Automatic annotation (TrEMBL), chain B:
One of its GO terms (molecular function) is ATP binding. SMART domains: AAA. This is Sugar ABC transporter ATP-binding protein. Belongs to the ABC transporter superfamily. It comes from Devosia neptuniae. Pfam families: ABC_tran (PF00005). CDD domains: ABC_Carb_Monos_I, ABC_Carb_Monos_II. Residues 5-242, 248-498 form the ABC transporter domain. Keywords: ATP-binding, Cell membrane, Membrane, Nucleotide-binding, Repeat, Sugar transport, Translocase, Transport.
From TrEMBL, chains C, D:
It is found in: Cell membrane. This is ABC transporter permease. The keyword Membrane applies. It holds the Pfam family BPD_transp_2. Its main location: membrane. InterPro entries: ABC_transp_permease. The chain crosses the membrane at residues 18-38, 50-71, 78-98, 104-123, 130-149, 169-197, 228-249, 282-302, 308-326. It comes from Devosia neptuniae. Keywords: Cell membrane, Membrane, Transmembrane, Transmembrane helix. Coiled coil: none annotated. The lineage of its organism: Bacteria, Pseudomonadati, Pseudomonadota, Alphaproteobacteria, Hyphomicrobiales. It is a multi-pass membrane protein.
């Protein structure tokens, strides 16, 4: 076989994070001679839509499947189908509660958000009010990042109070309005953590529109966030390695097709970056536009 | 002299219906040419072809002797053909003036802006010329059918057409308004306008028309001069037989129990302290001019509108009626004057419309409908009322106006109420069917039903009523015995300001 | 408005229900033919079953929406009501540990109950259906999150729950065509709804309300009662959809549902039901729902990039409806 | 349907536009009063400005939707059309590097052009507005992604671009009330739309079409042309919304926009415009849009948990409209 056909079913499609994962996957595909398709539902709550995508991918009879489960239980029967058909499955972004995927290329979101909490605490001097604007109340990444941040604050920084956690669906405009409301309701607020790219951008927009000078910590990268960090509007952000996730997923799939053995988890890592560290090669490598 | 317009051998079919076949018609300048025929004869269809609404399947149209194609209402207008449609075609959310000048609004500032003042002024001028008391700025949806009809007439006049088609313009009008319309028609005639006049009111034909063309079942029967042809001849051309005109027989119902009693009914300014009663087997005529409040009284009794105060007694029992459902339960049926909006489910078929008020009767355990029984009943009424329809599954909106009205009547006959209120039951109904309906009402009364007939046609009220209640401005101004004279009724009905300004020339034509 | 105002003459020709169905079908068939030719994988049993399975939830929701739309109303809450019912089932089965049949009944009752409330708000308070069901959509969305504690509720303690949608009763008898139960339930709901619409008083009033509500009222019919009944029935059907989606996902996902109303209404309208009420068929809606899922599946099978899938879907939806209009006109 | 079937007599009483406005206002005022009492932060200048700013995009979209809805149609594509126009502006300004005025014109032209296409599909091909604009919604969503390469386009090379929505021309003159330009643009669009609706032929036909399209046609008016003009105008207004959102986010976000149509239509209906056409006001829509954003802002200011925010919003939308109905009835 000259070119492998690999279907990636992701949790989303239009967001820059997923586009970066796609870019990584495309890169690996070009390198290893595979064709890759990349699909994901509209929002991270549409579990059933993702099932339909997975089912259609299976009908296509690809050589391998990469899958970022919105809900791992729901996917079990279809994953079983893949296994029965001898199609290797690689999990990415977050784990699948199943022994079918041969490996998982992922970020530890809880730990990543805890790191954001540490940085926030450091920047506001260990006390005061902070808030979180997150993207989704029920998706895995939404829950993990909010929990990671809030729990870390509770455990390690008793003088810091998380006064509000609100969700803007990752929509920049809605997140802007939410951030403004939080700021106006809590004039003494010290910082806001924006738990994904859209939320983070919204928080900075809100801050700018109200001429506030709170500390903002973001998540992921993208041209806007990088620009904000450059200009100082955002103190720093956590970045995962989405390009790496996509790349490793496709690479693992091809290894599997070649019969090589895979480690159970491929940790693609996360970093905190700010104006000072942004240009470091190891960080610059995982940032995307 | 060339005819203004000539229709030769026109044919038109709808799925399942041959509406027109080889019909001829011509119109001279300065004449009123009446088009007569039973419900569903094809009059409206022929006129819709002439006004660009429908395309003909066969035949020729000549305008001033030259063959023409009339492809759209706009083209018809450009050729000087104006029409007042039988079914009102108004924009209910717009004002009277906006309706009249739709598509031809006066502009200002180089055409960019509407000149609302000029619009209202122009409308006022037309209204004045019609002696019509109506504000140009009134929203049309809030007007009664009669006033809406006047707006339609004003609209048609505003086009200054050479050919003016009037499809049952007087169906909703009272005598004063009709008289006013005839003044206008005579004026137009004198200006050389040719007028096609469709009406089921036979007396009007004699009064206004020069020639009469009769159609039957979509075919051309003949054209006769109006002056020298007797009414009986025209009617027999229409229905293919002669009609007997039974005289009014007033039965003695004084001993019969009172079926419906209304006590001190009040509702705003429309109904003021109205009390009356109807006995079983009695037909009570409710007469009055337009806006007298007859419809309002009927709707209030029926629970269609809330009432401010008043009691309703049925068969000696006080009944609390707050919805039409309550009224029907109490045995009261109401046939509305506005069939299109309040009578028919136009998108449904004839069968379902007939059964609409009696569905419970056809419902088997488990909510299942007995469609077979419904069909039988529907077919019975189609036969009994000679409703012209290809089948009982034809959609109601595809029937001719008069046949739609018969469907609504059938609905209430089927419901079998003890008390029936008919609001303008023969509006748009042809002479043949009219006499059938009269027979029917009389038969219903003979069965012991109490009947109230609201009619703006005095001859009809006189022809049917055992007693006549007359209303004016929301008040009951008098109760007359059957066989009273028109003058007595008019005397009671005119203790008010008319919406039409009484003028001398009105008397001249009336 | 637009519909009733169609030129009454030759152009606004009505065609019989049976024939219309055939016509709407042809759009679907055209799509199927194109995709079959384009990809050998399309017409394989497994994929056909996948398409049907993908239709089941939207199909059931669309049937609920059909009833309401025929009355001249609209129901924006079908999607979140489905979720709400799924969450209720989750609470009954997983939190309370009650047996499966109780969960099934609870879902349908919850749907019916919410439908009753929506119907009452619309009929008695005269709030326009768009607003009443928009409000209800938001209320149910919030309540699902509240009740579930913003977490999915899993049905791991109820063995057999996944069988509701994923099992195959048919396959157990005829192994060659393992049609999932979810699909059979869709057909069952469709059959029942078609029966109700054409054969019962409820159905007749549904059409009558959409045709001319005031005329029905003046015929002495208690229109409030029937309107409420229609919304309640639609709600019950959403309860069935709630069971289907919960069974497919083996969980009640509280955040899902918003946006599904648009797909459901689209299926209804593609299927020839008029948004101004008075006209519509269940079979048309089924075909509309199938068109939507065949499109989605076919474009995925052909590996069309996702952004282009959207463009093509939009174009084909317009073309499908236009073709239908053309065919009717040329009758 | 329901609306046109109102009894023709006394009950169908019309109230003057001015009075109706006052009534709808009272729902808004009630909300403002409640929130002011509940939180001292609510009525602060900055928060009031935040609410207005938050209304600007949805308000402009809702005005576009108002025009279409008055004709008896519907436009589901307002949200994605806004995004499409923003992307076009991004291409013109950032990719092609053309000067700011060109970008502004491009956005409005793009919106008008798309509106022309939608209008033509609806008027000429007789595709129902729901389907035509649903299809258009999907097409534009896909095209925005395609054109932008699924990446946001930033306006960093166009200094002053953020001033369109975020700057304050008023504040430069009267520093005490720094009303953002975005809000002024909303008011400007509202004023223009109200003017068009009440004073021009386009407005007259907009109402006439919604009132009785067939009657307009029988009056010899070229209804297709006017219908297309209405959709094109609405499209142009969406172009303005595209500029506003792009300026606020200093970027064209290609993935955003779907779902915005529901908020816009909700604002229209809350504002008293009838979905069956023929009736509506721009001021009502403005108030509807304000009600939506006051609610969202107030609940956030009070830190109501998100899931309860949704429940409360749904409930209040229903209550606000019901209160309006009650008041009109008791007139
Ligand atoms: N659009 C249509 N589709 C099908 N049949 C139609 C249509 N329009 C009219 N018809 C049928 O054509 C015949 C002629 O109808 P038309 O309206 O011309 O009668 P008419 O003479 O005006 O009757 P009326 O006095 O009751 O108004 C009727 O049988 C009617 O049912
Ligand atoms: N839009 C309106 N606004 C105010 N009053 C109205 C309106 N329409 C009708 N009315 C009034 O309602 C009253 C009763 O009208 P109704 O229609 O009951 O009269 P009617 O005797 O049945 O006459 P018609 O021959 O018109 O049916 C009249 O005083 C009339 O002027
Ligand atoms: Mg006629
Ligand atoms: Mg009357």
């Amino acid at each position: 076989q000259d070119s492998y056909d690999i279907a990636l079913i992701s949790k989303g499609f239009q967001h820059q994070f997923w586009q970066a994962v796609k870019a990584g996957a495309d890169k690996a595909a070009a390198e290893f001679g595979a064709t890759v398709t990349f699909e994901g539902p509209e929002t991270e709550s549409q579990v059933d839509r993702q099932m339909d995508m997975l089912a259609a991918a299976l009908s296509r009879k690809p050589d391998a499947i990469g899958f970022a489960a919105l809900d791992s239980q729901a996917a079990t029967p279809l994953l079983q189908q893949a296994k029965d058909a001898g199609i290797p499955v690689i999990a990415f972004d977050s784990g699948v509660d199943s022994d079918i995927p041969l490996t998982t290329a992922t970020t530890d979101n809880v730990a990543a958000a805890a790191l954001a909490a540490d940085k926030m605490a450091e920047l506001i001097g260990g006390e005061g009010k902070v808030a979180v604007v997150a993207h989704d109340q029920t998706s895995r990444t939404g829950i993990d990042r909010v929990d990671g941040f809030v729990n870390r604050m509770k455990e390690a920084y008793p003088k810091i109070e998380v006064v509000s956690v609100q969700y803007g669906g990752g929509d920049q405009l809605q997140s802007t309005e939410i951030a403004k409301s939080i700021l106006l309701a809590n004039p003494d607020l010290k910082g806001i953590f924006g738990a994904n790219e859209g939320s983070a951008i919204g928080v900075v927009n809100g801050k700018t529109e109200l001429n506030s000078n709170i500390v903002v910590i973001g998540f992921d990268s993208g041209a806007a966030q990088k620009g904000f960090i450059e200009s100082g509007a955002m103190a720093g952000a956590i970045t995962q390695n989405p390009v790496g996730i996509g790349y490793e997923t496709v690479k693992a799939a091809i290894s599997a097709l070649k019969g090589e053995t895979l480690p159970p988890v491929i940790d693609t890592g996360f970093y905190y970056y700010d104006k000072a560290t942004m240009a470091n090669p190891e960080i610059a490598a995982v940032l995307y536009d | 002299m060339d005819a203004l317009i000539e229709l030769i051998g026109i044919g038109k079919s709808f799925p399942g219906v041959r509406a027109l076949h080889n019909v001829n018609f011509d119109l001279q300048a300065g004449e009123v040419h009446a088009l007569m025929g039973e419900n569903g004869a094809g009059k409206s269809t022929l006129m819709k072809i002439l006004s660009g609404v429908y395309r003909r399947d066969a035949g020729d149209i000549r305008l001033d002797g030259k063959p023409v194609e009339i492809g759209s209402p706009r083209q018809a207008q450009e050729m000087g053909i104006g029409i007042i449609h039988q079914e009102l075609a108004l924009m209910r959310d717009l004002t009277a003036a906006q309706n009249i000048f739709i598509g031809r609004e006066p502009r200002q500032l180089g055409g960019w802006l509407l000149d609302e003042k000029a619009l209202n002024r122009a409308t006022q001028t037309i209204f004045d010329s019609m002696n019509l008391k109506l504000a140009p700025t009134v929203p049309v949806g809030s007007l009664t059918v009669a006033k809406q009809q006047m707006v339609e007439i004003a609209k048609a006049l505003s086009y200054r057409s050479r050919i003016l088609i009037m499809d049952e313009p007087t169906a909703a009008l009272n005598d004063a308004e009709i008289a006013e319309l005839f003044v206008i028609i005579n004026r137009l005639k004198a200006e050389g306008v040719g007028i096609v006049y469709i009406s089921h009111k036979m007396d009007e034909i004699k009064r206004i028309s020069d020639r009469v063309t009769v159609m039957r079942d979509g075919e051309y029967v003949g054209t006769v001069p109006a002056a020298t042809t007797s009414m009986e001849t025209i009617i027999s051309m229409m229905v293919g037989r002669t009609l007997s005109n039974d005289a009014l027989v007033v039965p003695n119902t004084s001993a019969a129990p009172v079926a419906l009693e209304v006590r001190n009914l009040n509702r705003g300014r429309e109904i003021r302290d109205v009390s009356f009663s109807v006995r079983q087997g009695e037909i009570l005529g409710l007469a009055g001019l337009m806006g007298a409040g007859r419809t309002e009284v009927a709707r209030a009794i029926f629970g269609a509108d809330p009432r401010d105060s008043g009691e309703i007694w049925v068969n000696g029992q006080r009944v609390g009626i707050s919805t039409p459902g309550d009224a029907v339960h109490a045995g009261i049926g109401y046939l509305s004057e506005d069939r299109k909006h309040f009578g028919l489910a136009t998108g449904m078929n004839v069968r379902n419309n007939i059964a609409l008020a009696s569905l419970a009767r056809f419902t088997r355990p488990g909510g299942l409908l007995d469609d077979g029984a419904m069909r039988k009943v529907a077919e019975r009424y189609i036969g009994q009322l000679s409703i012209k329809t290809p089948s009982d599954t034809q959609e109601a909106r595809l029937l001719s106006g008069g046949n739609q009205q018969k469907v609504v009547i059938a609905k209430w006959l089927l419901r079998d109420c003890d008390i029936l209120i008919f609001d303008e039951p023969t509006r748009g109904i042809d002479v043949g069917a009219k006499s059938e309906i009269y027979k029917l009402l009389i038969a219903l009364a003979a069965e012991g039903k109490a009947i109230i007939v609201i009619s703006s046609e005095l001859p009809e009220v006189l022809r049917l009523s055992h007693r006549i209640a007359v209303m004016c401005e929301g008040r009951l101004t008098g109760m007359l015995p059957g066989g009273a004279s028109q003058e007595e009724i008019m005397h009671l009905a005119t203790q008010r300001q008319s919406s039409v300004i009484e003028t001398t020339n009105q008397r001249k034509t009336a | 408005m637009t519909d009733t105002a169609l030129p009454a003459g030759k152009r606004g020709v009505r065609i019989s229900g049976a024939f219309h169905r055939l016509l709407a079908f042809s759009g679907l068939i055209a799509l199927v033919v194109v995709f079959s030719l384009a990809s050998p994988n399309f017409m394989q049993t497994q994929n056909v079953l996948a398409i049907l399975q993908a239709t089941s939830v939207n199909g059931v929701l669309a049937i609920a929406a059909t009833l309401v739309i025929i009355t001249g109303g609209i129901d924006l809450s079908v999607g979140t009501l489905m979720t709400f019912c799924a969450v209720i089932t989750g609470v009954v089965l997983t939190y309370f540990g009650l047996p499966l049949p109780v969960g099934i009944v609870a879902s349908i009752l919850a749907g019916t109950g919410v439908g009753l409330v929506s119907g009452t708000i619309i009929a008695k308070l005269k709030v326009p259906p768009f607003i009443a069901t928009l409000g209800m959509m938001l209320i149910l969305k919030g309540l699902s999150l509240v009740i579930s504690g913003t977490k999915p509720i899993y049905f791991n303690d109820t063995p057999g729950f996944t069988q509701i949608a994923q099992g195959s009763f048919v396959g157990a008898i005829i192994p060659a065509i393992p049609v999932p139960n979810g699909v059979m339930i869709l057909f069952l709901v469709a059959g029942l709804a078609a029966f109700v619409l054409t054969k019962t008083a409820l159905g007749r009033y549904t059409f009558a309300l959409g045709s001319n509500e005031e005329a029905v009222r003046l015929s002495g019919v208690n229109i409030d009662r029937w309107k409420i009944a229609v919304y309640a029935t639609a709600g019950g059907i959403c309860g069935v959809a709630g069971l289907l989606i919960a069974s497919r996902l083996n969980s009640a996902q509280p955040a899902l549902g918003q946006g599904y109303e648009l797909d459901a209404i689209a299926a209804v309208v593609i299927g020839g039901t008029s948004l101004s009420g008075g006209r519509g068929t269940v079979i048309g809606t089924l075909i509309g729902a199938l068109i939507i899922s065949v499109l989605a599946n076919g474009l995925r099978i052909l590996s069309v990039p996702q952004e282009w899938q959207t463009v093509v879907t939009g174009t084909i939806i317009i073309l499908a409806v236009y073709a239908d209009i053309l065919r009717r006109r040329n009758l």
